[in-house]
């Protein structure tokens, strides 16, 4: 699949405010700074589409980008910001969960995991929430350019072991580097395949 058009449509606070187009959505979720915005920009070949920042927590809420006029990429606020208050953090987590549960056009959630570190409780908790609600989920391990192969394998296996405590079958996994464009073709091919089954049913 080639991306020939990508445009920002709207930032929403609540799932109820999201754009009312009847096209599939592919959401990107993960802890702040995991590389969501960078991955989106890498996928659509547009460095400026979704703002990336070295300051955690900059993305606002639920951000819709219309791709090729026929589906949405959704950049979610994320979770686990060090600098916001506990009350604020819990509010964002509630709102993200509410979007995940209530967005009827949500086709797949890509959960981004930092490949450099061992499993984090917040990541496991979100994975299990998504699984429990039977929302299709794929995992993308990010920043693989920054980690040695041995450690990458170790962290991936640790994450799989954590998931297997609750999941019968593991979701599909992708590896990505926004710096080297690793994973771009595979992720886009996957989305394209899913999209066809949805759009032409
Ligand atoms: N080396 C490397 N750095 C990355 C990669 N993805 C993101 N980053 C950096 O990590 C930081 C956070 O990225 P960002 O996309 O804003 O994360 P977000 O908060 O999840 O949207 C930025 O400084 C990015 O340049 C990657 O694949 N490789
Ligand atoms: Mg971001």
The general outline is globular
What is the helix tally?
5
Poorly predicted regions are none
- The secondary structure category is alpha/beta
Small molecules bound: guanosine-5'-diphosphate, magnesium ion
Order of strands in the sheet with the most strands?
Answer: 1-3-4-2-5-6-7
Q: Largest sheet at a glance?
A: 7 strands, mixed
Radius of gyration, rounded? 16 Å
Give the topology string: H per helix, E per strand. EEHEEHEHEHEH
Mean pLDDT, all residues: 89
Terminal CA distance:
19 Å
- Compute the number of strand runs: 7
Strand content: 15-25%
Helix content: 25-40%
Please, could you describe this protein's structure?
- With 201 residues, the protein is an alpha/beta fold.
- Helices cover 34% and strands 21% of the residues.
- The protein has helices at 36-44, 86-102, 121-132, 149-163, 184-199, and strands at residues 6-12, 25-30, 62-67, 71-76, 106-114, 137-142, 173-175.
- A seven-stranded mixed beta sheet has the order 1-3-4-2-5-6-7, with helices on both faces.
- The longest helix is centred in the middle third of the chain and has 17 residues, at 86-102.
- The chain is globular.
- It starts with 5 loop residues before the first strand and ends with a helix.
- The model has no long low-confidence stretch (mean pLDDT 89).
- The site of magnesium ion has 3 residues, from helix 1.
